[in-house]
Specification:
This protein is of the alpha+beta class and 170 residues long. The protein is built from three helices and twelve strands, in the order H-E-E-E-E-E-E-E-E-E-E-E-H-E-H.
Amino acid sequence: MRLFWIAPLLTVALFCTGCKREMVDPVPPLEISFEERCGLPEGRQRVYDPETGVFHIHFARSNTESCSFRIAKVANDLPKSIGFRFTGVPQSYGVSGWPLALHVAGETYIIDLQAQIMETNSFVRIIRDETLFRVSRAGEVVAVEFTEKGRKLLQPGTRISFTFDLIKYW
């Protein structure tokens, strides 16, 4: 009689460990629209990784190019953690290049806070607010995690871009 209960108890024990894992939604919370010189990193099939909640985007810059993408759609309920992993982001943008930034509602929020802005345009309001993102860099790879305050900037039409100016830099 006791042997009869061992199999069901083992089955419940095995399945309960799986119940503790958080369910992963494979649908991305943002729809990305690639624009200038950006796309998927080599070897990736999808821009969004549902296991980590990270969007992977590669910028393929050349001598003097703007690299950008837009957010086309936003889910009604954004997750608490939204991150991006950008590859191909230069450590220096050149003399008249512009750093990695988020553009929304006529304002520009600098993501790459270490970057020097050489030229300023009086028509653009530049905001440096380190409470919007947590940023780390390893060479030309920039990881960005949006804080709760920063997630509010993720709206349809929001553009993330930088401009690299090698010609003027040398």
